[in-house]
């Protein structure tokens, strides 16, 4: 990914699960240009 669209690891909790995902998007506009890509194999919980 380009530098302006750098990705970093995030923890997302949903449906009683804790997931490690990649937060990808423009840092300047997180509310409208960030997508969270979850990897289900990294999810734990019920």
Task: Describe this protein's structure.
With 46 residues, this protein is mainly beta. It has one domain (3-45). 9% of the residues lie in helices and 63% in strands. It has 1 helix and 3 strands, in the order ββαβ. It has one helix spanning 30-33; strands at 7-14, 17-25, 34-45. The protein has a 3-stranded antiparallel sheet with strand order 1-2-3. Strand 1 and strand 2 form a beta hairpin. The longest helix is centred in the C-terminal third of the chain and has 4 residues, at 30-33. The protein is elongated, with a radius of gyration of 12 Å. It starts with 6 loop residues before the first strand and ends with a strand. The model is unreliable at 1-6 (pLDDT under 50).
List the helices and strands and how they pair.
Blueprint: E1 7-14, E2 17-25, H1 30-33, E3 34-45
Antiparallel strand pairs: 1-2, 2-3
User: What strand line-up does the widest sheet have?
Assistant: 1-2-3
Radius of gyration: 12 Å
What profile does the largest beta sheet have?
A: 3 strands, antiparallel
* Count of discrete alpha- or pi-helical segments spanning 4 or more residues: 1
Name its key features:
1 helix; 63% strand; 46 residues; mainly beta; three-stranded antiparallel sheet; single chain; disordered N terminus; elongated
Summary?
With 46 residues, this protein is mainly beta. It is built from one helix and three strands, in the order ββαβ.
């Amino acid at each position: 990914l380009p530098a302006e669209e750098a990705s970093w690891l995030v923890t997302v909790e949903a449906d009683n699960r804790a997931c490690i995902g990649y937060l990808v998007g423009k840092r300047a506009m997180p509310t409208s240009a960030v997508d969270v890509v979850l990897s289900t194999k990294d999810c734990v919980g019920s």
